[in-house]
Batch of 2 targets.
Target 1
Amino acid sequence: MDLRLKRHSGVPVYLQISSALREQILSGMLREGQSLPPEREMAHRLGVNRSTVVKAYQELKAQGFLHARVGRGTEVKIWESREKEASVREEPLDWRSLFNASSGIPESFFSEMLSRANREGTISFASGFPDPDYFPREIMEDIQKNLHRENARKLYLPSPVEGYAPLRESIAALLGHRGMHVPSRNVMILSGSQQGLDYVARSFLSPGDVVLTEEPTFFGALEIFRAAGARVVGIPMDEEGIRRDLLEGAIRRHNPRFLYLLPTFQNPSGITMSLERRREVLEIAGTSGIPLVEDDPYGELRYEGNRLPSLKALDLRDSVIYLSSFSKVLSLGLRVGWVVAPSLVIERFSRLKQITDLHVNTAVQMLLDAFLRQGHYEEYLSRICRGYREKRDLLEKSLRRHAREIPWSWKTPEGGFYVWCRLPEELSLRSFLSRGALQGVAFFPGGAFYPDEAGREKYIRLNFAHTALDRIEEGVARLARAAGESLKGHAPFLEEHPGGQEPLV
Amino acid sequence: MDLRLKRHSGVPVYLQISSALREQILSGMLREGQSLPPEREMAHRLGVNRSTVVKAYQELKAQGFLHARVGRGTEVKIWESREKEASVREEPLDWRSLFNASSGIPESFFSEMLSRANREGTISFASGFPDPDYFPREIMEDIQKNLHRENARKLYLPSPVEGYAPLRESIAALLGHRGMHVPSRNVMILSGSQQGLDYVARSFLSPGDVVLTEEPTFFGALEIFRAAGARVVGIPMDEEGIRRDLLEGAIRRHNPRFLYLLPTFQNPSGITMSLERRREVLEIAGTSGIPLVEDDPYGELRYEGNRLPSLKALDLRDSVIYLSSFSKVLSLGLRVGWVVAPSLVIERFSRLKQITDLHVNTAVQMLLDAFLRQGHYEEYLSRICRGYREKRDLLEKSLRRHAREIPWSWKTPEGGFYVWCRLPEELSLRSFLSRGALQGVAFFPGGAFYPDEAGREKYIRLNFAHTALDRIEEGVARLARAAGESLKGHAPFLEEHPGGQEPLV
C-alpha cells in the first residue's frame, strides 16, 4: 500500500490517510472484500500514531467505505456501501424527463414480439436475414489468412472516411457489370445501407417535411424518416410497382423532399417495378425536380426472369441516390453497405460519417474487396440464387397445401427474400402472433410496413431465405395451425421477452 | 441473345426488339463496345423481316444506345451516349438547393489541411491515432485463427443491437477492475465512442439547447453537438480541470442540457481533473439535476502518477453517461467503443442503433472479447504505456531544445496522446500550417478545439503517440523551422488536397 503523506501540508494527517484510501478504493486499487492492515500495523508502516489511523478508519467507516468484521479486521466494502449510500443520500437523476421530444424514436413493440423468434425450436420466417449456412466461410477464411500474411499491418489501421479505396473500386466495377457506370469516387462505403437512410434523412429532411414511398414499404426506412420528424406518405402499388397515376398528384399535393423506392423485389411486397414504370417514375420525378432514393439490397437475388436496370442506371439527370449492401447477399453481421450518389451528396455524407462514426472497420472492407477481386462473387451468387429459388418454391407449395383451411394468398416474387401473404380479414394479427409463438413459428406482422399503421392488419411477411430448407414445410404447417386457432377466436397470449434485441431488417 | 417476341401483343415487333435490346444494354447484359449481329443475321435468328431489325436498330441509334462503325458493324455505345444524352437533353438536379438547413454540418477546412499530413515523408503529429506498430498483430492473428476453427459460423452472423453479450461482460469486468462496478446490461457496444456522442446529441439536444464543455475540448464533440443545433458554451480550465467557480454560474445562466467532460488526459489540453474537482463537479451537477457525459478514451494510458476514479465510478446519482473506446488503446480502425449508462439511456441508444446501423460488426466484437478474456490486455497496456512515455519524454526534450528560437510552452501530460503547445501570440497559425506542410511536418491547429473559434489561434495539438520514436526529434526540428519562417512573416501557402479524407480524432 503506497500512501504518501505530506507532513507540513496543513491538511491533518488522518484526513490525508482517509482520502488516500478512499481514492484507492474508488479507483479499484483496493478491491471489494480486501482487508486493510490492522490499525497498529498501519500506524507503524506510515510512521504515525495509532490514534491517527483509528480516526482515518473511523471516518471511512462512517462514509461507508470500510466495514469492521469480528475476527477478520477491517474490509473494503465499497460496492454494498455505495448502493446503500445511493439509496440513502442521493436522489437519482430522472432520465425520462431529460430526453428531447424527438417522438420519432419508436418504441419496440415489434422487437419484443420478434425476440421470441429466437427461442429454441422456433421456426422463424420473421427476420430479414439470409441463410447463414450459405455464407462462404472457407473462402473468407482463406482470404483472412492471406490478408494476415501479406497485409497484416493495414488490416488494423484506420481507413478513409469514404471507405477503403480498393473496395470502392471493386464495387464500382461490380455495378458496371450491371449497367451502372459510375466512377469509384461516387461510391462510398457505409455501415450497412441503413446508415445511408440515416444520412439521407439527416441531409434532406427537416421536421414537417414529407417523404413519398411505396405502400407498403421497408419499416426501417419509415422509422428513420419519422425520427427526423418527417411525415411519410405512402402510395399504393400495382403489379408494375408504385402507381404512376397516383404519384403525380401526390407530388403536387405534398411537395415531398424525395421519393423513397425499393424497385426490385420490394420489401415486403416482393413486387418488381417494370422497366416502363421505372422510366415513367424517373420522368415524373425529373419534371418535378424531386430526388429519388433507390434502396436495392435484394437486386442481385433474382431467381427467374431478366434482370432490369436500376433507376440509377436509367437516370440521366444525376437525380438518384442508390443504396445497396452485402447484408442480404452475404451477411448482415458484416455491417457493410454502400451508396452511389452525385459528388455533392458524397461530400455531405462523408462529413456526416466523420462526425457520427468516422469510417467502417478496415479489416472487413479489405475482406470484401478481396472476395470481389478474386472473382468469387458471381459463382457464389448463382449458387445461393439456386438455393433460395428452391426455398421459395417449397414455401409456396406448402402455403398452397394449407390454402383450403386458411384462405391466404400471395404473388410469387421473382427474387429477394419475401412472400407477402394476405390473410383473411377476420384474422386478428395479434392473436395470430401469440398463437404462432406457442406453436413455435414466427413471422413479421404487416402493419409495421405501412406509413399509416391503422387498419391494415391483414398481411404478414414471410422470409423464406433464412429458414433451413427442411424446416419450411413444418414451419408452414405450424403457421396454418396458429392461424386456424386464431380464427376460432382464442385469446391473445403475451409473455415477457428475454434480454438482447435482434436487429430488425 | 435471348429476345422473346410476342406476335399478337399489339406492340409493333420492331419496338419489341428495340426495347428488349435497350433493356439488355441498360442492365449490363450487353456491354459497352459489344457488337450486335448484322441486321440480316438478327432477322434470321428472330424469324422477322430484315426491315424490322433495321427499324429497331435505327431507333436505338437515334436514342444513342447503338453506334454503326464502318467495317465493325453495330456496337453498343451506352456510356458515351448516356453522357451525351445527359448533356443535351436533361437538366441535372441542383442538389445544393435540396439539402436541409442543418448549418451544423461543418465544412472541412481542417480535413483539407490535414490530408497533407499523409504525404510521403511528412512527419505528422496531427492525427489522434495510436502507434500502429504497437498493435498486437500476432496475438490477434492467433485469436482469429482460433475463432475460425472453433466458432466460424458465429463470426459472420448478426449480433444483438446492444452488442455481443460476452464482449459486454468482458468490458464490464475490465471496468470493475478500475473501480467502476456496473452490470453488463448497462454496457452497450458502439461503432466507436464518437457514435456515443451522436446518440447523446440525438437523445438530449434540441435546436437552441446549450451544452457546457471544458474549453478547449474535443472538436469531434463540438461538431456533433453543433450539428444537432445546440450552442456549446466552453468553461476554462485550471490545472485541476474545469473551473468550478465558473461552472455554477454557467449552469444558472445557460440551463444546459448536459455537461460534456473529458476528465482524464483531456483532448487537447492533456489536463487531468483532480479527485477533489471530480467530487465538486459531481456535486454541482447533482444539485442542479444536470447529467454528465464523461468521455474517457485515454484514461487507460497513464505514464505516471496514480490512477484516479472516473466520474462514473464516483457517481452516486446514476447521473453519468460514460463513453470509452478501443480506438486509442488498440486501433481506431477497429471502430469499436462502448457506453456505460443508466438502463433508460441504454434503451434509448439501442433504439437509435437499430434505426441508424443495427449493430457493430460481429467478428471484431468476438476478436476483442477473446483478447480481453485471454488476459492479454493488461500486459499489452503496460507495454504500450512504457513506449508512449518514452515518446512523450522525447517530444518534450526536443521542444525544450528549440525553446530559445521559438518561445513555445506546454504542461507535461501524465498520460494520453497530446502535448498542448502554446505558441507566441504573433505567430499566424495559417502561415505556420502551410510552412509546416512545406517542411514536411503536420500538427492540429488549436482553434478547432474552442467552442468559439475566434481569436484563439495560439495553440497547437501535438500527438506524440502516433509518430515513430526515431522521427520525433526531426519532426520537432521541422516544426521549429516552420515556426521560425512564419514568425518572419512568410505568406501562407495553400494547395489542393488529394482525394480521400483521413478520419479526424
Target 2
Amino acid sequence: MSRLDIIRIDSSGRKNCQDEVSDEIPLTIHLDGKELLTLLCSPDSLKEFSAGFLYSAGIIKSINDIGTITIDSQKWISHVELKNKTDTQKLMFKRMYTSGCGRGVLFYNTLDLLHRRKVNSNLKIHSDKITELMASFQNSSAAFKQTGGVHSCALSDGEDILIFKEDIGRHNALDKAIGAALFKDLDMRKLIILTSGRVSSEIVLKVSKTRSPFLISRSAPTDQAVKLSGDLNLTLVGFVRGERMNVYTGQERIIHE
Amino acid sequence: MSRLDIIRIDSSGRKNCQDEVSDEIPLTIHLDGKELLTLLCSPDSLKEFSAGFLYSAGIIKSINDIGTITIDSQKWISHVELKNKTDTQKLMFKRMYTSGCGRGVLFYNTLDLLHRRKVNSNLKIHSDKITELMASFQNSSAAFKQTGGVHSCALSDGEDILIFKEDIGRHNALDKAIGAALFKDLDMRKLIILTSGRVSSEIVLKVSKTRSPFLISRSAPTDQAVKLSGDLNLTLVGFVRGERMNVYTGQERIIHE
C-alpha cells in the first residue's frame, strides 16, 4: 500500500489529508528465458502468482513441472525455468490464434473445455459453515478495509481458511491462491474456493482446472458461469451476505436444515 | 438478463425461487476479414463496443476510419471493415510481443504513453455537481439493481448524463461509452467520465486516449493510476459516496466552497 496526499471533500468542507491506495506493478513472466506476457498485479506472492497463472493457463500440470522461479523485484520480472523446456514460440502462437479466449484468459480454448471431466465429489458443506467462512474471509481482508481497492480469494477445507490472497484483480487473486496450494501440495479436490469477486465463465473455467467442487462468491455470477458450473457439476454459491446466499448449481452438496 | 431457477437460503429456510443474472457472450472481432480476438462481454451495444475497443487499442483514430461494422448475433462475431485496410498480421504481431501490456489491455505499449500529451483543459466542475451526477449515474443502473453483476460507465457534459453503458467488465463498459461517443461525434475533451469500477493504470491509459479531463469513480484507484493521472494532468476523483469524495489529482478543476 502507498500513502498519498489527497484532498478529501465532504459536507464539512475540503481538507488535505493522506489516503492509502493499493500498489500496482507490471509483472513480466519470462518462461525458459523468453518473455511470455506482462500482467498488472499487486506486488505480493509473486512466485505463487507465477505458478498459479501457468497452471491456470495449462502450461504446467503440477508444481513438479517447475524447476525454479526467481523474482526480480527491481525490474518486476518473474524468471520461470521449467524442468522440461517448453516451446515458448508455440505457446505464443497458441495464445495468438486461440479462439474463445477472453481478456482475462489467454491460452484457453474450447477443446480444452470439452476434454474436461465433470467434478465428481461427494463433499458436502453446511450452509451455516458457508456463512461463517465468508464472515471470516471478509474479516481477513485488511487491505480491502484500508484501500477498498483489492479483491480477495481464499481456500478452505470446510473448517478453516488455509490460504488467503489479495490482488487488484480478481483473476490474479485466484491465481495466487491456486499457486499457493500448488506450493503447499494441497489437494484442491478437497478444498472450497471463496472469492470476493463477480463470477464469469472465465473464473469458472479456472476453478474447474483445480477440480475443487465449491466456488463461493460474495458477488454475482453471469448466466454463462452458471451454465458452465452446471455442465461441470460444480457447486456455485453467490451473494453470500450474512445468513443469505443463492445456490446456483450443485445444491446437493449444500446441507441445510 | 436471464432468469434462472435457484435455491435461496436465509434465516427463514431454504426455498426454490427465480433469480436474474447478467448475460455473458464471447464476441469475436473480425478486422478486415481476419479474426482479431475474442472478448467476453454483455450482449448489448456491440457496435459501440467494437468501435470503442478499436479506438482504445489505437487501431482507429476516429469513427471515420471505420467503413462498416456488422454484428452477427448468431455467432457473436463483429465484422469490422476499415476504410483503409490495416495489416492485421502486423497488429497480431504487436499484440503478441508488446511488453507492458496487461490482461485488460492488448496492443498498448510504453512508447505510446510517452508520446501522449498532457491533458490541457481548463474545464472545472463543482463538487456538488459530482455528488449529483454520481447519484443520477447510480440510479441509472437498472441491471446492477437486478443482478448485482455489472459495471457501468457514463459520459456527462457536467450537467446531464449523455451516455450510459453497462457491461460485465469495467473495461468493456468504458469501451462501450467511448464507442457511443465516437458514433455521436461528441468531443470527449469536454466530457466527464463516470465509472462504477476500480481505477487501474490501464483504465487511466484508456481514458487518456479520449483526452477527457475528468475521471470520476465510485471505487478506489491504484497507486499507478494516481501516478499516471498526475503525469497526464488528469483530474482523478474516487470513492464518491454521498457528499464525500477523494480528489487524487488535478484538484484545480474541482470547485468547492
